[in-house]
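#structure-requests
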Amino acid sequence: MQIAILSRNPNLYSTRRLVEATQAAGHEATVIDYINCYMNITSTKPTIHYQGAELPVFDAVIPRIGASRTFYGSAIVRQFEMRGIYSVNPSLGITRSRDKLRSLQLLSRKGVDMPITGFANSPNDIDDLIKIVGGPPLIIKLIEGTQGVGVVLAETKKAAESVVQAFMGIDANIIVQEYIQESAGTDIRCIVLGEKVVAAMKRQAEPGEFRSNIHRGGSAQAVKLTKAERETAVNAAKCMGLSCAGVDLLRSDRGPLVMEVNSSPGLEGIETATGIDIAGKVVSYIEKYAKPIGPRSRYQG
């Protein structure tokens, strides 16, 4: 098989591991910087060009689209789909998961539990917004934030009002969420592949920090999931339309709560913590499920 890996940087751990796993399985891997692709959008023969030449018809693509490049990256993935090429994650699933508000609304519609979340546009609604999520302490998140950036813990009503007013003052879109006290600075990252959780790790924030992201100094270790946690993670990925996803859960007194669904989860932290060859499992999944896309499919939209 010829497999394209859409990535800005071939030296990133996740990209290197996917290349190694593809080659170890006897396939050909091509890393393509999707930002430098360009398209011919036509009803007769839609094509994708890269470095002055038309790209061939690959058997499958693995999108590793950065959060700041979602619009262009998902357009490139969509163009591959228009050519009938299988993508591990469809463009529609990528755009759904990258919009925090939309993703939470989709999860809510399907009955997947999450922290109570509020969203408003006017500073006049701040007081009631804080009440909706149960009052302080509470979490305030930039909708466009990633890796813990733009996430604030407000421990008092006055602090919450000040932060929300500041974000609204610069026209930043935010959501306000209840703070899950019992999670105690930990969360669980699950890697979902198809209908299964193939790996899971518990991330612990460093002392004095509530964000457990490894990029922010958090530590990680393998963790055994409950049946409810596995089902919640799989359902969350399915809601987004993703075959390969990183689903972040909180353990709460009322059961597992979904914080976020990531369409391009990093592999380094979780492969290191669990010892599981996730890149190899992605390639095996492609071998089993990759097939040309028909005119009516999950990729529409």
